[in-house]
Write a structure and sequence with these properties.
- About 40% of the residues lie in helices and about 25% in strands.
- It is of the alpha/beta class.
- The protein has an eight-stranded mixed β-sheet with strand order 1-2-4-3-5-6-10-11, sandwiched between helices. A three-stranded antiparallel β-sheet has the order 7-8-9.
- It contains eight helices and eleven strands.
- α1 packs across α8 and α2 packs across α3.
Length: about 260
């Protein structure tokens, strides 16, 4: 039996806190929407990185309406990346959620990949309609991101900013970017989450060590779940790895999303 084709994804625009236009793509299912989802990509990644596109498409096949978007200064979004930091990334997530609430329905599931996972853990506290959160390959401490950044630094500017090439692109990281990393803890955010939480991580992830996932899981309260992604890599480059993740997310999210519906 052939699956019903998905509707064409919809390009959307919404403003960040500075009034700069952010670009997103909404993937819709062929039938009834189970829930709306915000997907947040990895460190310096755009909405069009393969894992983001494949995840959103797979979510739509499972009945979710999934919004992937470019953070400020990345991809097709406006603004300067140099002016951003972790706190502005969290605010961008809130703006994406607000767009969904205004134009369709508030998101009830957040999914974040790598540093995007840290952002959704922080954002969830300010999104009362969210019932479930999933992080994939996410660091337990933002010190880990700072260490990676220092390891990739090619130039230090007189004002303390760092210049590094990440994923083939050259970025300037202002001092306030590092400052906000020091002020936030994904582990603490997981501990106060108060929502259903699924941690997914590959044992052989060469970017974010597997032990970081255990820290996030151990910090979180029930209901929580942990899934090992076997031999996947950090960017889930194989379609099979994305499909495995989304199959599990879809099944796991059934209970918290159903509980949310009964309370509405």
């Amino acid at each position: 039996m052939t699956a019903e084709p998905l509707p064409r994804p919809v390009t959307v625009r919404f403003d960040n806190a500075r009034g700069q236009s952010l670009a997103g793509v909404l993937h819709r299912p062929a039938g009834e929407v189970r829930a709306h989802v915000v997907f947040v990509a990895c460190f310096t990644c755009s909405k069009d990185i393969p894992v983001a596109v494949r995840t959103a498409r797979a979510l739509a096949r499972h009945g979710f309406a999934a919004l992937r978007f470019d953070l400020t200064g990345l991809g097709e979004s406006g603004g300067s990346f140099t002016e951003t930091d972790f706190e502005s990334e969290v605010d961008d997530v809130l703006r994406a959620a607000a767009w969904l609430e205004a134009n369709a329905e508030a998101p009830r599931l957040l999914i974040g990949h790598s540093l995007g996972g840290a952002a959704v853990l922080e954002a969830a506290a300010r999104l009362p309609e969210v019932r479930a959160v999933t992080t994939i390959g996410t660091p337990a401490t933002l010190d880990h991101i700072a260490e990676l950044l220092h390891g990739e630094t090619e130039e230090r500017l007189p004002d303390g900013a760092l210049v590094a090439t990440i994923g083939g692109q050259r970025f300037t990281f202002a001092t306030h970017f590092l400052d906000t990393l020091a002020r936030h803890s994904p582990t603490q955010a997981a501990a106060r989450l108060g929502r259903a939480y699924l941690v997914m991580h590959a044992p052989h992830d060469s970017v974010v060590p597997y032990a970081q996932a255990r820290m996030l899981f151990d910090a979180a309260a029930e209901p929580r779940a942990f899934v090992s992604l076997d031999d996947a890599d950090h960017l889930l480059r194989r379609q099979a790895d994305v499909d495995y993740c989304v199959d599990l997310i879809s099944a796991w999210a059934t209970r918290p999303l159903a509980a949310a519906r009964t309370r509405r």
